[in-house]
What we know:
The protein is of the alpha/beta class and about 230 residues long. The chain has helices spanning about 15-25, 40-50, 65-75, 100-105, 120-130, 145-150, 165-175, 180-190, 195-205, 210-220; strands at about 5-10, 30-40, 55-60, 90-95, 110-115, 135. The chain folds into 2 domains: about 5-140, Rossmann fold (3-Layer(aba) Sandwich); about 150-220, Arc Repressor Mutant, subunit A, CATH 1.10.10.10. The chain has a 6-stranded parallel β-sheet with strand order 2-1-3-4-5-6, sandwiched between helices. It starts with 6 loop residues before the first strand and ends in a 5-residue tail after the last helix. About 40% of the residues are buried.
Amino acid sequence: MTTEQRLRVALVDDQTMVRDGFARIVRAQDDMVLVGLGANGRDAVDLAHDAAPDVMVVDIRMPVLDGISATREILAAPMSDDGSPPPRILVVTTFNLDEYVFDALRAGASGFLLKDASPPQLLDAIRTIARGDALVDPAVTRTLIGSFAGRIRPPVEPTTTAGDLTPRELEVLRLLAKGKSNVEIAEAMFVTRETAKTYVSRILLKLGVRDRVQAVVHAYRTGLADD
């Protein structure tokens, strides 16, 4: 795999041991390349602009600028000159607190992971959100999104209603809202994994949202997630 084909990853954490530990894990992967390290939220904003990462792993509690504010600023920035999209943000924290998950989702993060996650879980999270999927740590209850959905405003306000989705797409959206993966969706609907992935892509396009997390948020806010 060439450097151009590998996932470009940047890591930002004010704790040196955590940052260096994450860096060693990423550097050991054949499909990833570490493009930058930072120690605060301002570093994260600068890295997003200068290093053009595909995925950024960002801590929440940091000096100068916290991770939530940095995420919000990164995703609100204008598109780069070459037309590449902003990086996807994986927020990591020591704290399994509802308000942090809420703030991370509201800021537009694509994933939320606790720092006590294992190296394989970290790597899987990076790869998951790089594919355009979204991830919330299993330790964080899936019903949390539903609880906060009415308070979360996605980066792009969708206008899609149930009538804009086909019955099959609506069924897929409801499975997404239950936290189902593409494999689980395929099994539930008796289709191939590729077909399930196609359904998800169409839903994101119709809703005008970046990823699965924002699609689920929209589903709860509009009642589309109801059976």
